Amino acid sequence: MHSTQPDNNHLDELSPLTDIEQITQALADGKNKRVRKLLARMHPAKVAALLEMLDPEQRQALWQQVDAALETRLRPHMNLDLLGQFAVDSGDAPGSEASDAGQGGRTAPDAVNQLADIRIALEGGKLKRVGKILLRIHPAKVAGLLESLPPTERSTVWSMVETERTGKVLTYLHDEIRISLARQLEVEDLVATAQRLELDDLVDLIQTLPSELSSALLQSSTGRRREQLESMLSYPEDSAGGLMDADPIEVRANVKVGTVLRYLRLLETLPSHTDILMVVDRKGHYQGTLRLSTLVTAELGLRVSDVMQTDIAGISVHTEATEVARLFQDLDLLSAPVVDDDNRLIGRITVDDVVDLIRQDSDRAMMQMAGLDDEADIFAPVLVSSRRRAVWLGINLLTAFLAAWVIGRFQATLEHVVALAVLMPIVASMGGVAGSQTLTLVIRGLALGQVQKGNIRILLNREVGISILNGLLWAVVVALLAVAWFGDWGIGGVLGAAILINLLCAALAGLAIPLILDRLGIDPALAGSVILTTVTDVIGFFSFLGLATVLLL
Amino acid sequence: MHSTQPDNNHLDELSPLTDIEQITQALADGKNKRVRKLLARMHPAKVAALLEMLDPEQRQALWQQVDAALETRLRPHMNLDLLGQFAVDSGDAPGSEASDAGQGGRTAPDAVNQLADIRIALEGGKLKRVGKILLRIHPAKVAGLLESLPPTERSTVWSMVETERTGKVLTYLHDEIRISLARQLEVEDLVATAQRLELDDLVDLIQTLPSELSSALLQSSTGRRREQLESMLSYPEDSAGGLMDADPIEVRANVKVGTVLRYLRLLETLPSHTDILMVVDRKGHYQGTLRLSTLVTAELGLRVSDVMQTDIAGISVHTEATEVARLFQDLDLLSAPVVDDDNRLIGRITVDDVVDLIRQDSDRAMMQMAGLDDEADIFAPVLVSSRRRAVWLGINLLTAFLAAWVIGRFQATLEHVVALAVLMPIVASMGGVAGSQTLTLVIRGLALGQVQKGNIRILLNREVGISILNGLLWAVVVALLAVAWFGDWGIGGVLGAAILINLLCAALAGLAIPLILDRLGIDPALAGSVILTTVTDVIGFFSFLGLATVLLL
Known about the structure:
The structure is a homodimer.
Chain A: H1 19-29, H2 32-41, H3 44-53, H4 56-63, H5 68-74, H6 80-90, H7 94-98, H8 107-123, H9 127-136, H10 139-147, H11 151-160, H12 163-172, H13 175-184, H14 187-194, H15 199-208, H16 211-220, H17 223-233, H18 240-243, E1 250-251, H19 257-267, E2 276-280, E3 286-291, H20 292-295, H21 304-307, E4 315-316, H22 321-331, E5 335-339, E6 345-350, H23 351-369, H24 382-408, H25 411-416, H26 419-448, H27 453-486, H28 489-519, H29 524-552
Parallel strand pairs in A: 1-2, 4-5
Antiparallel strand pairs in A: 2-3, 5-6
Function (chains A, B): Acts as a magnesium transporter.
Transmembrane segments (chains A, B): 390-408, 420-443, 464-487, 493-517, 529-552
Keywords (chains A, B): CBS domain, Cell membrane, Magnesium, Membrane, Metal-binding, Transmembrane, Transmembrane helix, Transport
């Protein structure tokens, strides 16, 4: 990442290089943002001259960085020959303009077109087109596009995102990509764009970015904003404090509705996602909420105390994020007050952050089950990804060898009855499937709060019952198939018995493992399936080959 | 479910039975709601008399159904002896009152206590306590409690939920439990409580309940509500139309802010989750949105057209639900307009429904991977659950036998080198794990839109690269371990080669399977993992034993 250091020299300091040298160098480094910045400071005539000086390739590259405004100021100074060369690309494929329309419901098809459009534009080196396309897209979708691109193309596209929007885009990216792209920005630009962010987004950035950047962001903010920022950063990321925004609108219970309306009109704008005002007493203790929808329908003469809601209690700043999410879901909240231990109002949580949270959680669970990191870049360098996945494969190898070792104990038996080797995977796999069903059920039950101390015993009985019924059913089926195949009742019997045993143990393991992990504070989704497979494999092979050894030799 | 038919006889029709006979029968059937209803119609003196007549057990049961109001009217008519008997249970365990406080932030601990409290109260037959506890809990949490209880206790608790709240509770339940509990209600009660529901909740009910109930619900609603209901029902459940509510507040672009405020004050109340008003032209075409937060801060003299937002396009009524969810997430929407093909405003979608949708989707994906139904009752009768899971086990059995069949082709080889039987599970399991990593990555990539035509080729190269690197790494490791174990370089070599081959094929399969399923319109999360395991098992065993046969014999 050293390559990014040079960027940090501020433009206003006396630079040893001439503009032209700086530009050519920036072009060579592909630092388009820097090029545009330099161009902006130069007189159009000088730029025109520069364009003529450069060799055709550099010239094209530079021209791609000339924005519409500069272009118009530039044209008078350019000779017809040059103008002729550039005439072609300044035009825009008509088809693409269409997607200009629906930046809402119709974005679905676009998303695809946009990726295609951009990759085509990139191949043609038409960075202007890329910039134009990006301009039309919501930051969230820009983030999506960036994540869908391989690293090299990604940083080119990133360099074409307007500096003002980069901050917002960063907030929508997954950690790994966010960090790498933030590093590609000049610190001063990062700081500038961060100033436009809402506090909770900024906190999110600061928490994920490497210290050299995050400290820059923190220092850049001053006064009240700085204080709020630091107080918000003092809470763990996955707590109500980490989710909250520090900008609730407070009103007193004893004032009139009309007065509140006049007060709001003085504020001119409310923070985004403001659906309720917070009612607090003189000491700032939270008392209740006043819905805007109530405010605009209530009689002006009524007092806030007459129309406020008191049914939603303040969320303690220490509440776990997952619990906050469940609250929002259960109580259908749009935003909710966050209070400290003395029930003093210190912030609010808005549903948009909760939605992201829920998405991430479900994402994480799914990825963890396969030993993957949900914040990882799916286009990360092959070597990096390989190393990450190798760990998981290594863990699995241990369990595989454990199973193999069990089989190894019974080599003598296998030599006598080789059919056992043919059938033994069936026992293990049936156990694995049955176990994973119970495991998944319990993991989800824990997440939804359906599985609690109060009813584990009932659940246990059910799972055991189910596994016995299915065990008997499939034991018979498999046994008969085995007999039909090898014409040996002994093998069939042993196979059936082993399956029954393994399914029973699988149910017990599938229930016990997540409960134990949960008790230990380990995420069941992460380690659950590996441990389960180990159990079902070992028990499967042992019971099958063990029984065979006892009964068939 | 025939048992529920008798409920349908309406009370207002002349009943052949006397009140007392009806009550004793209802008590016997455990139809507490019906009992309470009958009691409400009787004169307190008569009830008192009834109480004295009944045998102690029935008396207790009946007393549990006497609510506070009736109790006070009853006392004067009761003899001291009886009063004495009941004095005990009318009192309430003090501890339980505590959980009365925080119906918001502090619900987390409660949830647990509540389940415990209720089960204790049930064992003591203290239905009154149960009713009291339920009264304090938000419908969503009541639903959670019901889902955490085994069927018998569940229906007892259900019978103690106030009729008014049953409708709301139903909307929070998963389909299977929802249906069974709705069946336990008297149709007239179901209809009554349904009238209190918001349209989108009602639609949701009608779509999931069995026809006899849903038709009753539909017919019960009349006039405008009926029309809206039918139009909403005409859209598929998983489309914007199925998610939308038909109650947007419309305003014209040319009216003044002050006028809008006066208009709203005339409405007195706004639909829940109203954060924006919809701006439409004379023909009802959607033009833009006016935020309440803008409305309360804007100058009264300004026109709506001056302060309205036009950046959010109307969501087409045909948009897929998942796409709607992504829109809400990307654009941080609280609610959004739904338009027909002529861009005419026909409804709005609110974020609370989107939150539920996201939760359900993530739930479903996780459950489907284990072949489970996310709408199923985790306390469903053992026999029912067994049958459901048996299907999945059966499917898996096919793949297991396929793998076994492959092994069977090589019995001769296994007889010569029994060590192969010991090691072959390692090849299969390593392949399975590696494949599932790619599979998960792609399934999620498809969901997030990260994986598209535009970049599949790149993804392919990466996955192949990763699998080769990891393949080589673990091939060597495993080979050496095998050599160390069996002191046979041949076996080690074959094992390593097989692992390399299987990991490569696993990566290809993990990438191809979800893409193909997605193309076929099958949910990759559902069938993906089974197919993958089949592939990795078959290829694993075949490559290992095949190579062994060629090279070692």
